[in-house]
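Table 4 source record.
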Amino acid sequence: MDVKLNTIRLVRVLSLAGEILNNAVSFAVFCVLDFVDFILCFVYKVIDFWMESQWKPCYCSSAKQRIIEGDNILVSEECESKIVCLTSTNLQVEDISDTLYSRPSIVAQLSKFIINDLNKTKKTTVTSTFTIDSTIVEVLRRNVVPRWSDCDCKICNSWTSSRKDTLFVKAEGPKGMLDYKYKAREDVLFIHGFISSSVFWTETLFPNFSTTVKSTYRLLAVDILGFGRSPKPTDSLYTLREHVEMIEKSVLEAFQVKSFHIVAHSLGCILALAIAVKHPGSIKSLTLLAPPYFPVPKGEPATQYIMRRIAPRRVWPVMAFGASVACWIRTYLLESFCCHTHNAAWHTLHNIICGTAGNLDSYLDTVCNQLKCEVTIFHGGDDEVIPVECSYNVQRRIPRAQVKVVENKDHITIVVGRQKAFAKELEKIWKRSKCD
C-alpha cells in the first residue's frame, strides 16, 4: 500500500514539475517570438518601401489609427467588431474579429505603452471615438494589390486564368447527375477544415462509398474561399458571410441543390452550422467532425477567450505550439510557409473561428429548435487540436445529437486511415434520414 501511495505522490510531483517547466519555457519562448515578430514588422515595412515605394500598414503595428477625414467607416471595438460603410458602395456590415489586431502579449503591451506615451506629446483635434485598423481601410478602398512577398507561381495563381468568381467544386455521381440542370435524388455537401481542401474527402471517402451511393447520390466537395483550387482574392477579409455566400453561389445555386446532407470537419463545422441556420428546411442530416465549440463564460470577451483556448501559447503539446504560433505571431515567415493562402488562412482563422464565437450559441439553438434533421458528431479520442469536450459541449446545446468518440484517432485520422469504416457510417446516417 505504501509503495502504491508513494508512486501516486511521485507521479503528481512529476506532473506538477512538468507543468511548471512547460509554463516557464512557454513564457520564455513566446517572449522571444513576440520580440522577433515586433522586429520583423519594421524590417518588412522597410523592404516594402524599398521594393514598392510604399510603406504598407499591417495588423501588428499601428493597429488602431484614427480616421480623420473623408471616410464614413465606423468600428465598434467592444469584443465583437463591426465595420459599417455609409458610402454608396456594395459593402455590407462585416463581422471582423478583434483578434486580428488585438493579441495581448508582453512586447505588444510595452510597444502600446510607448506609442501612447508619445501620442500624449502630440496635439490633435480629433474628437471621434471610432478607430479602425489601417489595413482594413485599405482593403475596403479596394487598394490592395499583390505584394512582392506573395507567391507568384503558376499553381498559386491558376484560378485567375479561368476568370471564374466561383469556388472549385469536385462533383461525383452517376452519369447525367453532374449536369447543373439535373435534380439529384440525394445531394451531399462536404466542407473541409482549416489549411485543407476538398482532397480531404475526395481522396479518402469518395472511392470507398458503395455502388448504391455512387449511383444515387451526388457528392459535392468544395474548396472554401482562399483554399485549394478556389479563388484567393487579396481584397477579401474572408468573413463568415463571404464564405457562406460563395458556397451558396458555387454549390447550392450552381448545382440547383434544394435539399442536402452536410458533412463538415473542424473549421468547416462553423460554416456548416451557418448554412444550416440559413437554410433550415433544406438540411437532411448534419454530420460534424471535431467541431471547435468552446462555450464562452459570462463577462469574457468571446473572441479573445476562444483565441486563448485554441492557441494557449504553450510549447507542449506540439499541436498547441503550432496553433499558438499560427494564431498569435503573424510574421512574414509564416506567410511564406502558408504560401498563396497566407492572407486567406490568417483572416479565416480569426474571422471564422474567433470572430463567430459570440454567434455559435444561437446557431446551435436554432439547429436544436428549428431543424428536425439527424445530428451526428464524430471526434478522435486523441485529438490535440480540438479537445473531445467540444463535441460534448455541442451535445449539451443539441440534446438529440449523437456523439461518437473514436478511440486512438486524432484530428486527421478520424477520417484518414479509417475511410472505409467512416464511409459506411455516413451511408447509415443518410439512409436513416431518407427513411424518416
